[in-house]
Amino acid sequence: DVQLTQSPSSLSASVGDRVTITCQASQDINNDLNWHQQKPGKAPQLLIYAASNRETGVPSRFSGRGSGTQFTFTISSLQPEDIATYYCQHYDNVLRTFGQGTRLDIK
Amino acid sequence: QVQLVQSGSELKKPGASVKVSCKASGYNFHSYAMNWVRQAPGQGLEWMGWINTNTGYPTYAQGFTGRFVFSLDTSVTTAYLQINSLKAEDTAVYYCARDRVIDYWGQGTLVTVSS
User: What is the CA radius of gyration of chain B?
Assistant: First the structure.
């Protein structure tokens, strides 16, 4: 089964900072990777699908890149409302897998 | 618009059973699989498995076989998660989530297991 390793597990940044989270897959998964945002006390929400495609309505400061085994998720200019935990997620025809999450807060 | 509306919080005693519902609307129910995801207090997301909404065939992730049952009532476009022989460690928020891509999420159902 595919394993996803996210880093860092947590980070603090200032408003306006560029923030990058990485997700490494244990084997080649093409671009079958999503990024979800979970704000405190809320259900997760899909932000990025197929590694680099923003879901409708997602602000342009959020972006994703990568293919194969290495993926990145970037917030170009951190806003206070971006405080959340971010998860990468792989899917195939049978299984889904989540990374362990990256908790992001404001410095 | 796509909506997944889950049933309310549950408080159960160890050994009891619970059935969580997920009512889907705004799309063709049969066109998308339904996943179940667990989130224990303070922990990350854990995929439990999915059910084929055409055939009703369930697929369970490792660690979720035996006591966990996925089912459907297609007449009311609703998916169900039943957990039998509840244990304290089943205390968690349970989410339904659409499709293999996981593009829409329910609001979550808190199940608390306590004597």
Answer: 13
pLDDT of residue B22: 98
Choose the closest CB to A96 out of B95, B102, B108: B102
Residues on chain A touching B45 (C-beta within 8 angstroms) = 36, 38, 44, 87, 89, 98, 101
Listed residue (B100, B16, B34, B67) closest to A29, CA to CA: B100
Q: Is residue A93 exposed (0-12), middle (13-18) or buried (19+ Cβ within 10 Å)?
A: exposed
Q: How far apart are CA B99 and CA B43, in angstroms?
A: 23
CB A32 within 8 A of CB A84: no
Q: Is it the case that residue B100 has pLDDT exceeding 90?
A: no
CA dist., res. A76 & res. A53, Å (int) = 15
> Out of A38, A85, A91, whose CB is closest to B101?
A91
The residue-averaged pLDDT of B13-24 equals: 98
| CA–CA separation, A3 and B69 (whole Å) | 25
- What pLDDT, on a 0 to 100 scale, did the predictor assign at position B34? 98
pLDDT at position A82: 97
Query: Which residue type sits at B74?
Result: T
Which amino acid type is present at position B110? L
